[in-house]
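[Q] Does anyone have a clean structure-token version of this?
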Amino acid sequence: MLDQTKISLDKKEVARRQLAAAMELWFADGEPVAIHTLACAAHEVLAALLKKQGKPALMFDPERYRPGCAGIVKKALHRHYNFFKHANSDPDAEIEFPVGIAEVFLLISVEGWRTLVGSREPIHFAFWFWCLIHHSELMPLNDRQTGVPLEPIPNEKKRLFIGMPKRQFLTMATSAFNGDEPSEVLSMLNAHL
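[A] Here you go.
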């Protein structure tokens, strides 16, 4: 007998669930194709919802690119995602997949969620913070209220987290986000929550 349970969903809830599932898999070092597919699906839904509100459509916003380049960029961004979803045009094709690209879609989607709803989910914060620790050169810190640049996290504080397994990092960061476990480094980031 099939499960007869039904759930009511709007597009925002669909994006939230896809993004959460992708990040759960990512923190568990799960299947990279599934992570990327879920992250791209969440990104696509969030981009449409943001566009409907008159906000930039994340990586699909043509305003982000030089005139005439938006289509090329969109095609490149969809390349792996479309390959993972469809087999009708060339079922025997192969592709090389740089698994790190899923982190880009996850991070942009996390920021898109915050723009859409005005806050972060605990797992979103954990992923954002992981990226800040591991890719700080790509993520300058600005005060969320004023936009004023903040001092980067000192390397000695980053070293506390660099070697931490992802699952342990997730537990620590979500506990700190929820206020269960105060942390000197995380308290510095209150402007970004």
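[Q] Thanks! Anything notable?
[A] The mean pLDDT is 82.
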